[in-house]
Known about the structure:
The complex is a heterodimer of chains A (164) and B (185).
Chain A: E1 20-27, H1 30-40, H2 44-47, H3 49-54, H4 64-78, E2 85-96, E3 105-117, E4 124-134, E5 140-151
Antiparallel strand pairs in A: 1-3, 2-5, 3-4, 4-5
Chain B: E1 13-20, H1 23-33, H2 37-40, H3 42-45, H4 57-81, E2 94-100, E3 109-121, E4 128-138, E5 144-155, H5 161-170
Antiparallel strand pairs in B: 1-3, 2-5, 3-4, 4-5
Amino acid sequence: MDNPVTKDRWHFEDLSEGQAFTLGPEAVSADAIKQYAAEFDPLPFHLDEAAAKASMLGGLAASGFHISALALRMLVEAMLGQCAAMGGLGFEKLSWRRPLKAGDSLGGTATITGLRRSASNPHMGIVTIHLEMRNQNGQEVMAMTLSNIVEIRHPVPLVLGPAE
Amino acid sequence: MTRFWEDIEVNVTFPLGEHQFTAEEIIDFGKRYDPQYFHTDPEAARFSHFGSLVASGWHTIAVGHRKMVDALYAEAERLKSLGAEPGLSGPSPGINFMQFKHPVRPGDTLTYSMVVASKRPSRSLPGWGILFNHLQATNQNGVLVYRGEVVGFTKMRHTPLGARIAMTLSKLPGLGWIAGRRNGQ
């Protein structure tokens, strides 16, 4: 609670299961797809229209890591950036369900699906967040479940045995 | 690029190289994709429980993925130089799990590696095989920074007759995108 950056932000106690946040939407251009790919995922179907058309994606499509990174930024803008967040533990069940083509838009929903207190650190709460990302036609593009740490405002004091 | 599914060995570690993270690139990635204060603002980050700027976990795995793609290209070149035909990698249907185990600070150097933990023919995409790739990175002190299981498609050298028929059927309009319905198909 002595962190001046996060003292007025949502803490663990302010969050509730089922709480949902709207992410995006925003359009993803061919240039943005190629720029991300050139930096982090230089596979032909993310870089070149002709190669992409011949691939199983059927046209220039965003790197899956690019889609995830865009979803992450939307999650930070809509939720994590408003929280007394303490970092991510990881994620599971990330599935890229459909290609995101040049000119498609990406948006979605983040839903809190779990809240539990850390067993080892009384200041840390673990928030489970399920993300569903869709294109402009409402078709699922990506889903994943993240675990992030959010600070507990009032840690439960350590309970000691009765003093005899 | 890479090898055909039949030629990929299971449980053999491929070193993917190293990368040193600078404060500048940590902040640059953070501002673009993970704008939390401990990834973007070195002064404010001092108040965080990390005590300093740290890289977004997503930045560390994006660099690891780039290292893997570079290694696939290098392997294709190596095979071509030996007169062999390289294979073909497809898009990934997903990541089964990823665990961020330790923070990465400016100046840290990560060493990346990959192991194909198991493989099997794809049930949904005839002519392709599925790889369960275990990726990890350790820092300069040997501390594990992340580990995860990324699923990948790779082309088979020999496509069975039944799969060839299914492949033809899958090109009919309306059957559409069948690769990405679920992880690990």
